[in-house]
Amino acid sequence: MSGTSIPDDAVIMRPEKAERLTDLLFELRCAAEDIATAAEENSPAEEIRELCTELVTLARRAEHLR
User: Fold this and answer.
1) How many Å separate Cα 51 from the centre of its chain?
2) What is the pLDDT of residues 16-32, one digit of tens each?
3) What is the pTM of this model?
4) Rounded to an integer, what distance in angstroms lies between the CA atom of residue 22 and that of residue 55?
5) How far is it, in rounded angstroms, from Cα 19 to Cα 16?
6) Binning pLDDT at 50, 70 and 90, where does residue 4 land?
7) By the number of CB atoms within 10 A of the CB, which of 4, 16, 22, 62 ranks highest?
8) pLDDT for 36-61, tens place per residue?
9) Is it the case that residue 66 has pLDDT exceeding 80?
10) How far apart are CA 13 and CA 33, in angstroms?
């Protein structure tokens, strides 16, 4: 942004979108932790598959946040 102290490669987003991104990242971390816990506890493969599907769905939602 010419004439400002903001770098040309900066990403600027509305506060609502930044908050949504923060929420999605928290959800992603929780989903990943759920998978780790399920694997540690030797949960059935079907349960781990479902948790992985949820993780991928959350990641795709984060990708579409613009």
Assistant:
1) 14
2) 999 999 999 999 999 99
3) 0.80
4) 16
5) 5
6) confident
7) 62
8) 999 999 999 999 999 999 999 999 99
9) no
10) 28
| Tokens coding 66 | 């613009």
Q: Supply angle C-alpha 9, 13, 19, rounded to 5.
A: 130
Burial level of 14, CB count in 10 A (0-12/13-18/19+)? exposed
- CB of 58 within 8 A of CB of 31? yes
pLDDT at position 1 over 70: no
Tally of residues, the chain: 66
Helix (H), strand (E) at residue 55: helix 45-63
Contact 65, 20 (CB under 8 A): yes
Query: What distance in Å separates the CA atoms of residue 9 and residue 23, rounded to the nearest whole number?
Result: 24
Q: How deeply is 51 buried, as exposed, middle or buried, from its count of CB atoms within 10 A (0-12, 13-18, 19+)?
A: buried
